[in-house]
Model the fold of this input.
Amino acid sequence: MGFQHPDISAFPEFSMVIGEERAHSGNGIDWGHVYPGTGRITREIRLASPDDVDRAVATAKAAHPAWRALPGDRRRDLMFRLASIIEAGAAEMTPLLTAENGSILIAGGHMSFDAAQKFRYFGGWADKIDGRTVSTWGGPAHDYVMYEPYGTVGVIVPWNGPLFAATMVMAPALAAGNCVVLKAPELAPWSLMKLMEAIHEAGFPAGVVNLVTGGPDVGAAMVGHPGIDKIEFIGSGATARKILANASETLKPVGLELGGKSAVIVFADADLQAAAKRGLSGAVSANGQGCVNGTRLLVERAVYEPYLQMLKAMAAHVKVGDPFAMDTFMGPVISQTALDRIDGMVRRGVEQGGEVLCGGARMEGDHGEGYFYPITVLAGIDPTSEIARNEVFGPVLVVTPFDSEEEAIRLANDSDYGLGAYVHTTNLARAHRVAGQMMAGQVQVNGSGEAMTPCVPFGGMKHSGHGRLGGIEGLREFQQVRNVWVNLQE
Ligand code: NAD
Done:
């Protein structure tokens, strides 16, 4: 039996776009893309090679002077047009999002809408790239600051949400006047290929956005390439370490958006139902593979037991299964390797005293062909244990009780990561007091995903990375500063 396998007849044709050149395949290795819902190959493609990266970079560099010189209102109009084309093409994009990484079909429409919103938001900045004047010290002078694009930005994104991640970078980078060399991840390449069709249709000049589909060797070639002026990397800390070492040769700036182990603090005065629903979303959202998912639940002891019961009851109602089915709320994880990692971490968590509230082992039957892991909640977790400290990147929540506000803050901040933090309370003063002490790049009060909009800055502290995407901070990430001092003294 098993679940529906993707229909590849609607898959995009081009796996590589370099300037005017649209190629079915690159010059690298052969790659069979696996659909995680069935564990079977969808389509074989030939990935890009480091030589293809050379050509993509040369093409982007050649396109840059004209793109940089294009008046901001023209860049804005192109980005607005692109947004409309992405929205109009949502019905075609949605099955590709499911086919590439098993994300549920019912979430797909939102992904196109979100991508369109990013191009609208940053398109709106493209015609407002103003500098500023500075009141000077030390003699009569006129001083001003100008914001310059870097040139060519290399964009490397993970498989868990390629469209989401890539547009989060491309929109501000393009608005600021940069060209882009984008690497589609080998594990989930289809949505970015489709995005390239929309970019072409919108009328972007050839070479402004180039796509290479490839794996680590292609990413490494981009990072080490002297022609790429800045790298924006979204992915794991382990890869980020290699990238920083590689970038040191060319002294290239690198923006890093990395993983997390985001704390969810539930105070006894919270709306418990809402906090449980939002808490559970840390396991369900993106099939448990969202960087900013709240996966470390800290619950005030007075409501610990009722909260656990609510989580358990709600988890039982989430249908895990065929991502193409309209009543499915959670799909598979990305690969057998991921499944083994998740299962191993859960088993060790149990050995270290975790109590399995639900889930806890790989799913069988129809689910057995693909890479399905159930929503798993481990209670009574020691905050120093492996599963409490490390990113699982699967549908697994750990829950620990606390007794005071101070303890909750201490536990939440006791992490190598600092991406998101969630605070559930109805006490306004406490909400702001606690939010202001979270060592995390984005704190949500009584929220769980609403802040992932292009108008607010998003990014990490500590091992979750540095730099921000979204908001004016996201634009600044792709601009460098030129200061001009004009001496007024003859
Ligand atoms: P990964 O680090 O394995 O791979 C990310 C990308 O880097 C892929 O495109 C891969 O091909 C490429 N790559 C691998 N080795 C490389 C190298 N040596 N040089 C250059 N590029 C290389 O990460 P993943 O498994 O694809 O993604 C999961 C991780 O991403 C999780 O840790 C998750 O939290 C994180 N993530 C972070 C954000 C964020 O915005 N902070 C968003 C999504 C995912």
The mean pLDDT is 97. Residues 156-160, 165, 183, 185-186, 215-216, 219-220, 223, 234-236, 239, 242-243, 257-260, 291, 391, 393, 419, 460, 465 surround nicotinamide-adenine-dinucleotide (CB under 6 Å). Residues 173 and 478 are 5 Å apart (CA to CA).
